[in-house]
C-alpha cells in the first residue's frame, strides 16, 4: 500500500481531520496533495514522522502495513474488528479457514500466522476453560513451521517480531533464549525503530518468563539485556527494572510496595493507566506464584 493511501486510512480510522493532523506541522494543503497523489510520494520524511507521532502510530507498524497487500490488510482489519466483538462469532472461525486456504495455495507464512491466531482466539472464546497446552499439542505442526521460519530469516523486520509475539506463550525456553541471543545479528540496532522492536521483544520475554515461573531464564535475560536499555528508551528501561524487582519479590517472599516508587513517574506524567496495569500484573503474579 502507498504511503499516502495508508496515512489517509489511518487518519480516517482515528477520526482525525487534515486540519487537526497538520496543525503546527505544515499546511493542510500539503497533506491534501500528498493524500490525493496517484504518483510518487511528495511529503518529506520529517513531516511523515511527525504525523505518525501525532496519530500515535509507531514507525514499524506503519512500515509493516505499507508492505502488506490489500488482501492481507483486509485480513488484519477483520481480525482487529473481531477482537472488539464480544462474543466473537463464527466469522472468526471462517476467517481462520480462509487464512489456512491462502497458506495452502501460496505457502506464505503470513497466512499461517494469522490463521493460527484466529483459531486461537476462536478457541479461547468457545472452550471453557481454554488450555494452552492442549491447543499447543493440537497446533504443533503449525508452530513448528513458524519456529523454523523465524530461525531461518536472516534479517528480521516488523513481521517477524509480530509472528514471535503471537506465539511466544507456546515456545520452549531454549528456543526463546536462542532467538534472544541471535537477534542482534539479524537486525540493525542503530536504526531506532529496530531498537524499539528489539526492546519490546525483550520485555515480552521477561513478562513471559515471570508468568511461567522460569526464574533462571528471566535472570539470564535480565542480565544479558541490561546493556541495551538506557534513558533514551526510558519506558522499556522502567518495565525491565519492574520485572527485575518483581522477580526479587517472588524469590524472597518479601513483599513491599515501596520498591516500586519509581513507577510513580507514570502518574506524574499523566499515564495513570501504565501504573495501574503494572500494579495489577504484580498482584496477579504474587497470587499465582503463591497458590
Automatic annotation (TrEMBL):
The species this protein belongs to is Schleiferilactobacillus perolens DSM 12744
Q: Which InterPro entries match?
A: Cro/C1-type_HTH (IPR001387), HTH-type_regulator_Rgg (IPR053163), Lambda_DNA-bd_dom_sf (IPR010982), TPR-like_helical_dom_sf (IPR011990), Transcription_activator_Rgg_C (IPR010057)
* SUPFAM superfamilies in UniProt: lambda repressor-like DNA-binding domains
Q: Which GO terms describe its molecular function?
A: DNA binding
Q: What range(s) does the HTH cro/C1-type domain occupy?
A: 7-62
Tell me the protein's name.
HTH cro/C1-type domain-containing protein
Q: Provide the taxonomic classification.
A: Bacteria, Bacillati, Bacillota, Bacilli, Lactobacillales
Amino acid at each position: 500500500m502507498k504511503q499516502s493511501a495508508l496515512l489517509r486510512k489511518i487518519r480516517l480510522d482515528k477520526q482525525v481531520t487534515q486540519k487537526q493532523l497538520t496543525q503546527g506541522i505544515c499546511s493542510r494543503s500539503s497533506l491534501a496533495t500528498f493524500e490525493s497523489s496517484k504518483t510518487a510520494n511528495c511529503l518529506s520524511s520529517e513531516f511523515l514522522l511527525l504525523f505518525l507521532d501525532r496519530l500515535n502510530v509507531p514507525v514499524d507498524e506503519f512500515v509493516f502495513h505499507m508492505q502488506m497487500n490489500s488482501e492481507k490488510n483486509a485480513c488484519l482489519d477483520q481480525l482487529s474488528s473481531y477482537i472488539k466483538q464480544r462474543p466473537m462469532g463464527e466469522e472468526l472461525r471462517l476467517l481462520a479457514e480462509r487464512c489456512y486456504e491462502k497458506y495452502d495455495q501460496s505457502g506464505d507464512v503470513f497466512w499461517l500466522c494469522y490463521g493460527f491466531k484466529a483459531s486461537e482466539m476462536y478457541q479461547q472464546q468457545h472452550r471453557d476453560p481454554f488450555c494452552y497446552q492442549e491447543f499447543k499439542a493440537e497446533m504443533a505442526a503449525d508452530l513448528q513451521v513458524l519456529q523454523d521460519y523465524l530461525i531461518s530469516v536472516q534479517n528480521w523486520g516488523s513481521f517477524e517480531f509480530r509472528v514471535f509475539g503471537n506465539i511466544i506463550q507456546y515456545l520452549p525456553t531454549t528456543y526463546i533464549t536462542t532467538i534472544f541471543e541471535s537477534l542482534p545479528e539479524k537486525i540493525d540496532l542503530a536504526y531506532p525503530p529496530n531498537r524499539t522492536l528489539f526492546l519490546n521483544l525483550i520485555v515480552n520475554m521477561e513478562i513471559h518468563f515471570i508468568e511461567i515461573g522460569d526464574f533462571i531464564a528471566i535472570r539470564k535475560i535480565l542480565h544479558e539485556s541490561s546493556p541495551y536499555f538506557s534513558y533514551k528508551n526510558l519506558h522499556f528501561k522502567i518495565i525491565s527494572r519492574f520485572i527485575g524487582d518483581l522477580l526479587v519479590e517472588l524469590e524472597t517472599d518479601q513483599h513491599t510496595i515501596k520498591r516500586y516508587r519509581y513507577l510513580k513517574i507514570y502518574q506524574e506524567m499523566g499515564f495513570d493507566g501504565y501504573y495501574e496495569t503494572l500494579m495489577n500484573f504484580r498482584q496477579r503474579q504474587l497470587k499465582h506464584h503463591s497458590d
